[in-house]
């Protein structure tokens, strides 16, 4: 068990989370802790409840039962805005991008920068978009391109850029299958980015089916099975076979 | 984390070289404007010299202005991936009520406010239905069309209101520096709504909601408020169009404005604002409105019957939609 970290107050802690959809129980009393500057892998087979759990944390779902504590204080996360206010940003699997809109619009949607008279400062948003993509070491032909014309890795960069750089600096970033559909080079760039986020004091909850990727970046892993926690390990204390066994029971 | 202002970016943004293929794509994307120019040239030859007279051109632009005012409203709703089918009925209802107040011995300002206000109210109802009650825009605005049109008929009891007060007639029939007043209204609508759509947060929200409503919601965009405002504005603009229309007609009755719905939606689609939402805008709608008005004007001059005109218009819209789709499909350029 990850017992050295017990001394710290977790950045976020959820206790006894239950979530039902009609008759289907997606989460049957899940406890989870995330500490600062930590990459936590959330693992499990399809239908284990990973997506549901992160949607509870990100405010997309409300749990039927359970408590959430942020930096030790009890909080309610009833909608995505509550999560954002706490500093929790989520990058969903479909990335919630606007395909037919350009890069700056995607980056700044909902948090546009205003100039004088309440008018949008489009020049500044454009130049910041350029900087953000540069920071993520992503090259695009033109910042005014529609996002649908970008590659998978570039689209991910836009989604990540939005979570990390727009608005206030987040404390937690949740990534749902970020390397799915990415080539080897783009995956490795993304994993480097996750490490960089940790170095900058941002914790990451990472859902991934790719155990190789998980073992290369994560500090701890929590495995869900059928809506319950099947096990929790420090990555250095375990191996893919044990993880797999916990996943499938 | 480094502050963004201090970061010197090493990003390389290769500006796309102006290759022949790229140029071709850019030129193709303006196909409506090319079509416009071509048709204008064609008509100038076919209907020489009357087509090119200042009077006729001003006439065309005046007609287009009226259609434009209404089409901007529809464009807004289509941008949100919705539609407003009610504009014909809303126009009729708000104009008839406005006319009734205009005939009373009170300032015309009141009648004008009634017209705009009623249009806005119908639009508000549409907006609430679409956003909070989550009724599909087609169904909500279709229902509103019948409700508003029916209300107009009930209110008017088969009567027509004639002879509106001269000060009011100025808006639709008057001129300033020999330019018909409706053209100024269209210009004003263009200015105001261009600023709204492209320089405000609300404008971004409209495009965002149309492009991906769930993503917009997740990002904290007030989706419901955006939809309500869009549909309300569509109603107000239908009301404004109606006022300009009855001002020129000098009469108001429930059957007015029936063609406007088809023409306004056709103009938005032809102009390049697809039903899928999030793309196009009110500049695009200008070309659509001009195309429709020009062709109608040209057909009138040549003497084409009004039934054939509708056939031509319908065909045009389909061809325009196909052109839009194929251009979008075969190239990956930005519009």
Total strand segments of chain A: 10
Query: What is the ordering of alpha helices and beta strands of chain A?
Result: EEEHEEHEHHHEHEHEEH
Poorly predicted regions of chain B are 1-17, 330-335
Secondary-structure content class of chain B: mainly alpha
Would you give an account of this structure?
The complex is a heterodimer of chains A (249) and B (335). Chain A is of the alpha/beta class and 249 residues long. Chain A contains 8 helices and 10 strands. In chain A, the strands form 2 sheets. Chain A has a 6-stranded mixed beta sheet with strand order 6-7-8-3-9-10, sandwiched between helices. In chain A, strands 2-1-4-5 form a 4-stranded antiparallel beta sheet, with helices on one face. In chain A, a hairpin with a 2-residue loop joins strand 1 and strand 2. The radius of gyration of chain A is 18 Å and the shape is globular. The relative contact order of chain A is 0.18. The mean pLDDT of chain A is 90. By secondary structure, chain B is mostly helical. In chain B, 73% of the residues lie in helices and 2% in strands. Chain B has 14 helices and 4 strands. A two-stranded antiparallel sheet of chain B has the order 1-4. In chain B, a hairpin with a 2-residue loop joins strand 2 and strand 3. In chain B, helix 3 runs parallel beside helix 8 and helix 4 packs parallel to helix 6. Classes of the chains: A alpha/beta (249), B mainly alpha (335). Chains A and B meet through helix 2 and helix 4 of A and helix 9 and helix 10 of B.
Could you give a short description of this structure?
By secondary structure, chain A is an alpha/beta fold. Helix content of chain A is 33%, strand content 25%.
Key terms:
heterodimer, A: about 250 residues, alpha/beta, six-stranded mixed sheet, four-stranded antiparallel sheet, 8 helices, globular, B: about 325 residues, mainly alpha, two-stranded antiparallel sheet, 14 helices, disordered N terminus, disordered C terminus
């Amino acid at each position: 068990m990850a017992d050295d970290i017990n001394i710290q107050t977790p950045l976020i802690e959820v206790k006894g989370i239950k979530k039902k959809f009609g008759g289907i129980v997606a989460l049957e009393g899940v406890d989870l802790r995330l500490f600062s500057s930590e990459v936590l892998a959330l693992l499990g087979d399809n239908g284990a409840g990973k997506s549901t759990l992160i949607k509870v944390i990100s405010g997309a779902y409300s749990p039927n039962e359970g408590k959430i504590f942020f930096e030790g204080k009890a909080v309610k996360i009833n909608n995505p805005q509550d999560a954002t206010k706490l500093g929790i940003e989520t990058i969903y699997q479909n990335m919630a991008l606007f395909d037919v809109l350009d890069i700056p619009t995607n980056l700044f949607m909902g948090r546009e920068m205003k100039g004088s008279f309440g008018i949008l400062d489009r020049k500044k948003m454009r130049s910041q978009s350029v900087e953000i993509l540069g920071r993520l070491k992503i090259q695009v032909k033109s910042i005014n391109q529609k996002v649908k014309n970008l590659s998978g890795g570039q689209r991910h960069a836009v989604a990540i850029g939005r979570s990390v750089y727009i608005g206030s600096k987040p404390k937690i970033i949740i990534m749902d299958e970020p390397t799915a559909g990415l080539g080897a080079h783009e995956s490795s760039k993304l994993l480097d980015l996750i490490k960089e986020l940790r170095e900058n004091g941002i914790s990451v909850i990472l859902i991934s089916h790719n155990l190789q990727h998980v073992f290369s970046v994560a500090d701890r892993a929590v495995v869900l099975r059928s809506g319950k926690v099947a096990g929790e390990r420090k990555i250095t204390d375990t191996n893919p076979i044990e993880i797999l066994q916990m996943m499938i029971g | 984390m480094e502050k963004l202002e201090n970061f010197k970016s090493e990003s390389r943004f290769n500006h796309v070289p102006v290759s022949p293929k790229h140029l071709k794509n850019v030129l193709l994307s303006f196909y409506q404007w090319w079509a416009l120019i071509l048709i204008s040239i064609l008509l100038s030859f076919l209907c020489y010299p009357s087509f090119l007279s200042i009077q006729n051109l001003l006439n065309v632009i005046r007609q287009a202005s009226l259609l434009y005012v209404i089409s901007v409203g529809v464009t807004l709703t289509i941008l949100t991936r919705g539609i407003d089918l009610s504009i014909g009925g809303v126009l009729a209802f708000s104009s008839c009520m406005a006319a009734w107040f205009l005939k009373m011995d009170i300032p015309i300002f009141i009648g004008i406010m009634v017209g705009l206000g009623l249009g806005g109210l119908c639009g508000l109802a549409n907006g609430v239905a679409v956003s909070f009650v989550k009724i599909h825009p087609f169904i909500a605005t279709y229902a509103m069309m019948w409700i508003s049109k029916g209300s107009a008929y009930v209110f008017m009891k088969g009567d027509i209101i004639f002879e509106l007060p001269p000060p009011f007639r100025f808006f639709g029939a008057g001129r300033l520096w020999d330019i018909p007043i409706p053209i100024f209204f269209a210009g004003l609508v263009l200015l105001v709504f261009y600023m709204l759509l492209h320089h405000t947060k609300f404008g971004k929200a409209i495009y965002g909601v149309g492009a991906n409503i769930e993503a917009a919601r997740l990002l904290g965009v007030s989706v419901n408020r955006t939809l309500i405002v869009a549909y309300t504005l569509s109603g107000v603009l239908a009301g404004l169009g109606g006022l300009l229309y009855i001002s020129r007609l000098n009469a108001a009755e429930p059957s007015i404005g029936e063609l406007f719905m088809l023409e306004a939606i056709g103009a938005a689609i032809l102009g390049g604002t697809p039903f899928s939402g999030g793309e196009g805008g009110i500049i695009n709608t200008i070309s659509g409105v001009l195309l429709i008005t020009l062709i109608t004007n040209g057909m009138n001059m040549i003497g084409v019957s009004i039934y054939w005109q509708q056939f031509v218009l319908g065909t045009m819209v389909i061809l325009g939609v196909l052109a839009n789709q194929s251009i979008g499909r075969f190239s990956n350029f930005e519009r």
